[in-house]
Amino acid sequence: IAAHLLRTSPSLLTRTTTTTRFLPFSTSSFLNHGHLKKPKPGEELKITFILKDGSQKTYEVCEGETILDIAQGHNLDMEGACGGSCACSTCHVIVDPDYYDALPEPEDDENDMLDLAYGLTETSRLGCQIKMSKDIDGIRVALPQMTRNVNNNDFS
Amino acid sequence: MSFVQIRHISSQINRKTVSIVGSGPSGFYTAYHLLKKSPIPLNVTIWEKLPVPFGLSRYGVAPDHPEVKNCEETFTTCAEEFSSPTNQKHKFSFVGGITIGKEILLKELLDNQDAVILSYGCTGDRKLNIPGELGTKGVFSSREFVNWYNGHPDFAKDKRFTDFDWSKVSKVGIIGNGNVALDITRVLISNQIDEIWENTDISSLALNLLRRAPVKDVKLIARRDFVHSKFTNKELRELWELEKYGIRGRIDPKFFQKEMFDPSKYDRAFNRRVEMCSEYLKPFNERSKKNYKKAPPPSSGYDKFWELDYLKTPLKINRDDFGAINSLSLCNNRLNEDNSLQPLKDVNNIMTYKVDLLITSLGYAGVPMPEFSKLSIGFDKDHIANKQGRVLTSSGEIFPHLYASGWIRKGSQGVIASTMQDAFEVGDRVIQDLVVSGALSLENSIDLSNIKHTTWKDWERINKKELLRGKKEHKTRSKFLTFEELWNGVEGI
């Protein structure tokens, strides 16, 4: 039907190969989801993320921030498909067993979503449901690999 | 904007071009991943057959699950960021109201673009294929029913719904055991509880008709047993929790008793389901854990029921003199040890359920695009033949530059989180291939000036109007219900 609508633009015919140039692009605000508060001196809480490539990142954050907010505020690979409302499993994290018991127990709605998480472990939680507090200062969490199960060795 | 220049090189950036067919969660998450992760500049176009975006998020997700639709915020941020003609590395366009294969051929996209990704979901219905399924009043497929109450322009004003006598619907049968079947059960059994529905974006036209139905009894009918139910715990829990409105769930003890299931043989999700059902089936005061005693039933007791019914095969839909459904004939099934299913069609095993409404919820079926056979694109039963998202020809070779993601890649299974994961994995492969591939030697653009379509800006206008209408009606959104209204929504503001 629309064959006649195809138009060849002659000026473009000369370019035959792609040059992969990396131009100085504007910084994309799209990549910065969260807006994290800066902790007051003396009130910083620490959290360490173990990324999918095994590298570690430690941040100083405020009490009350969720792990999802912290991860997105620092452009880590964590999605919050439902906007942090405990209606999906995309912010699944694996908590260091040393810290797991210090967390308040998950509610039914969180467990219902964890049922559907990839690579579920005994210490899996949703990042949107964990708020930073003094009880878990220094917490370590791993982002799950999608293609294999994460186990406790990832923390050693 | 009426001219979409597919190949965009105006600002000294050579962008490789990617077209995605379908703007539901799989299409949009694929676009999002490409725009976020590609090391080389891309010009991504999403093609959508409706004038408005978001597919099953807008027209499939239940109206009382607004949090599931929050993925639309991610898609919107992504579209806004890359639609503006600034010095962005990547560029994004949305083209709505155009069906690939109709106004524009798939072949044209393949000739024009460095990569084409098919993310158009599953657009057909699986059928029972029994007498009475077609042409009987009060028999609908889940896709039709869900699209109707969600205000899809193909169904919102369909006479099969609007002319149906809802005031006679007391007993309902739903065939199927997935989350869609549970969504429909919830809509029907709580139809007269305004606090659940009136502020949602459910079609007001549908809600007003649904409210007339004095629904008392909904049976969810499955061919297999409790172990094989496909729904997830969240949706099942929502049904049990309706007991505070006097709505009670039932399962016959011959299909469910806690002792039937050895926990060591099943996974965590299933064992949690067993606990949930065994607790909720007990009288309120006899339950052991406080999370099953959140809200007691009303003092007047229960007056509406939903029931999980197992091991039945529907045989025939029976009509009254006016062509409306009045009952469903079924037989018992036997589940053999090798998991094969055996319908027992002898007289002793045949029964009849009186039903006033029947919804078949057997899953959505993937449908090949019209050009597939001509282009030798492979199709396996209900999804596109592919290897890790790279589409295969009908003889099993890789079809160059063509990909599939989401339900049309794997079949209609999984929640948005799994669709997202699938989209990301396919997106990674597209990037891998684009980084090493040469560009097309011929560069074309597709002139849309003679084809009616919508842009992202048009959708923003429609969206604004729907939200405004919603505000006036005390709803989160009031959708335009016909194509005419949608196209008119583009005008003004």
CA-based gyration radius of chain B = 24 Å
Sheet-strand content of chain B, in percent, reads 15-25%
* Major β-sheet annotation of chain B: 7 strands, mixed
CATH class of the largest domain in chain B: Alpha Beta
CATH topology of the largest domain in chain B: FAD/NAD(P)-binding domain
Instruction: Pick out the low-confidence regions of chain A.
Output: 1-33, 147-154
Give the CA-CA distance, first to last residue of chain A. Answer: 62 Å
Overall SS class of chain A: alpha+beta
Percent helix of chain A, as a range, is: 10-25%
Rg on CA atoms of chain A, Å: 21 Å
Strand arrangement across the biggest beta sheet of chain B: 3-2-1-4-21-20-19
Structural class of chain B: alpha/beta
Enumerate the strands of the largest sheet of chain A in spatial order, edge to edge or round the barrel. 3-2-6-4-5
Instruction: Sum up the overall morphology of chain B in one term.
Output: globular
User: From the structure provided, what is the oligomeric state, counting identical versus distinct chains?
Assistant: heterodimer
- What is the correct CATH architecture of the largest domain in chain B? 3-Layer(bba) Sandwich
Distance between the termini of chain B: 16 Å
Number of strands of chain B: 22
Number of domains of chain B: 2
CATH superfamily of the largest domain in chain B: FAD/NAD(P)-binding domain
Walkthrough of the structure:
The complex is a heterodimer of chains A (156) and B (493). Chain A has helices at residues 67-73, 97-100, 108-114, and strands at residues 6-8, 45-50, 56-61, 92-95, 124-126, 139-142. By secondary structure, chain A is α+β, with helices and mostly antiparallel strands. In chain A, a hairpin with a 5-residue loop joins strand 2 and strand 3 (56-61). A seven-stranded mixed beta sheet of chain B has the order 3-2-1-4-21-20-19, with helices on both faces. A six-stranded parallel beta sheet of chain B has the order 6-15-7-8-10-9. Chain B has 16 helices and 22 strands. Chain B has helices at 25-37, 55-59, 71-83, 106-112, 142-149, 159-162, 179-189, 194-197, 204-211, 233-240, 268-281, 372-375, 407-410, 416-436, 456-472, 483-488; strands spanning 16-21, 42-48, 91-96, 115-118, 124-125, 139-141, 171-175, 217-221, 247-251, 304-309, 312-319, 325-335, 341-343, 350-354, 357-360, 364-365, 379-380, 383-384, 386-387, 390-392, 398-404, 444-446. In chain B, 30% of the residues lie in helices and 20% in strands. Chain B folds into two domains: 14-121 and 364-453, NAD(P)-binding Rossmann-like Domain (Rossmann fold, 3-Layer(aba) Sandwich); 126-361, 3-Layer(bba) Sandwich (FAD/NAD(P)-binding domain), CATH 3.50.50.60. Chain B starts with 15 loop residues before the first strand and ends in a 5-residue tail after the last helix. Strand 1 (6-8) of chain A pairs antiparallel with strand 22 of chain B, so a sheet runs across the interface. Chain B: InterPro entries: FAD/NAD-bd_sf, Ferredox_Rdtase, Ferredox_Rdtase_adrenod.
